[in-house]
Amino acid sequence: MPLAKTATACQLILLLAMASEATAQTAAAPPTPDPHTAQPERPTVATHAGTVAPGWLEIETGGEFDRYADRSRGGSVPTLFKIGLAPRLQLSVQTPVIRVAGTNNTGFGDASMGLKWRIREDAPVLGDVAVLPAIKFPTGSTATGAGTGTTDVSLLFISSHQLGAVAMDLNAGVTRRIGDGQNAPRTSTVWTASFGGPLAGRLGFSAEIYGYPATSGPAGADSIIAFLAGPTWTARDWLVFDAGIIVKLTGEQPRAICAGLTWNVGGFSK
How far apart, in Å, are the Cα atoms of 2 and each of 6, 25, 118, 178, 179? Predict the structure, then answer.
């Protein structure tokens, strides 16, 4: 699909989301009892269908340290800003810092922004349902390897369920990139199944299996399946720390450790 058509479809989804919010305020599901309660998407690849309360800001940040099969090392510090626009609508902006594997190059990677729209709650089988269209810009340096040099349009489908005390989030997404596929495949997909819940007191856990199916073209790669797990600690309702390890099941996924936090900063509008 040409990028222009993909972008147009993405824009249409965003317009429909905003129109729905503007005309269905009274029909929206009850708001989160405490808008200052953090809703971590870290440390998993998956995201949930939840959104930050309107007029509130939440920040997620942390570090990931990778070790590849050839013993080279890399890493990243992704920082995500989540801004509530409406009861079911959230703007997400991400600005990563990348340590390029096998080099001493460190710099800003490609920035991205997306709009998560929770379109249904408590749906049969699917639970809470959301879509997350996003666009990534070529802001990172291709000379250092911190960026891909491509503009990417993606669409992620999200299904969230509450299984007793355990939350389950299922994601499936597709990304389409401009360019000739030299630096990154023109089309790629992802799937995830993530679980999280309490262990004892403020200590909890997160666990996930995720996969990147095989891609084609000059930058194509075999499929990757990996497993992530680790503890979480709710220091305050508005501040949650996390840590985790990543191990590959198939493919070229590096072994990794990660740690970070989610901070619900608070409301910024009256």
Answer: 6, 35, 27, 8, 11
The single residue listed with the structure tokens 């890493």 is 75
Beta bridge partners of 231: 205
- 226/10 Cα distance (integer angstroms): 29
Cα within 13 Å of Cα(259), Cβ side: 1
Q: What is the mean pLDDT of residues 112-125?
A: 97
As a whole number, mean pLDDT of residues 58-78 equals 94
Cα 153 from Cα 1, distance rounded (Å): 11
The residues near 70 (Cβ < 8 Å, ≥ 6 apart) are: 102
3-state helix, strand, coil in the chain (%, to 5): 10, 55, 40
The proportion of the chain whose per-residue pLDDT surpasses 70, expressed as a percent, equals 87
Determine the Cα–Cα distance for residues 262 and 82; give it in Å rounded to an integer.
Answer: 10
Q: Find the helix or strand (DSSP H, E) in which 13 lies.
A: helix 3-23
CA-based nearest residue to 14, from 117, 94, 129: 117
| Whether residue 32 has pLDDT greater than 50 | no
Q: Which fold has domain 3-25+45-267?
A: Porin (2.40.160)
Whether the CB-CB separation of 19 and 12 falls below 8 Å is answered with: no
- Mention every residue, 6+ apart, whose C-beta is less than 8 A from residue 181: 216, 217, 218, 219, 220
